[in-house]
From TrEMBL:
Protein name (database record): fructose-bisphosphate aldolase
Family per record: Belongs to the class I fructose-bisphosphate aldolase family.
PANTHER family on file: FRUCTOSE-BISPHOSPHATE ALDOLASE
EC class of the enzyme, as a word: lyase
Organism: Anas castanea (Chestnut teal)
Domain of life: Eukaryota
Amino acid sequence: EGLDGLSERCAQYKKDGVDFGKWRAVLKITSTTPSQLAIQENANTLARYASICQQ
């Protein structure tokens, strides 16, 4: 599901008594990974998640 419909799910979770959420980004760390793009995209996704959850 990802971020699709997250706002609605958060509203329902809140009604169900949930007070916090957690989202993880898994990155493989090697001498060539993650790429700068992967780091940026994951940071953007985490920021979007945080913004939606705080509404």
